[in-house]
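Message: I would love a firmer grasp of how sequence relates to backbone shape in proteins. Thank you; the sequence and its tokens follow:
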Amino acid sequence: MTDNPITHEAQKHPFDRNTSLEPLENARFRGDFPHAYANMVGPYGGITAALLLKAVLTHPERQGEPVAMTVNFAAPMAETEFEIVPKVSRTNRSTQHWTLELVQDGAIVATATVFLAIRGDSWSGADVTMPQVPQPSDIEPLDTQGYMR
């Protein structure tokens, strides 16, 4: 049996390839412009948001799961590498607040805030099954004579 010539990186989905981040010193990350998601003046906003969120999700100080995120697009992203600077703003018993900057050539391109929470045990509900009912064509029309108009 021969080895598959396709590398592991090439087998990844374009989204996974375009959200790859390289850890740097001081808990920063480096990434490359996501060419597969390029638009007229930079990448689509969703891929930029995904890159910022991934920096938090892969950060060693992360606690909890994402609950909310706000992204501010300050300038178009240039077709070059970038750096993401994540910072834990505050950690509480079950929540964590982050601020992030996406920087290219020393200028901020986007900022974000991310709110994480450790979800505790809670009540849950079960979906109710639709009861068996007759088809609308099998039902006699309702006699509405005498109803207020």
Summary: The first helix runs from residue 8 to 11.
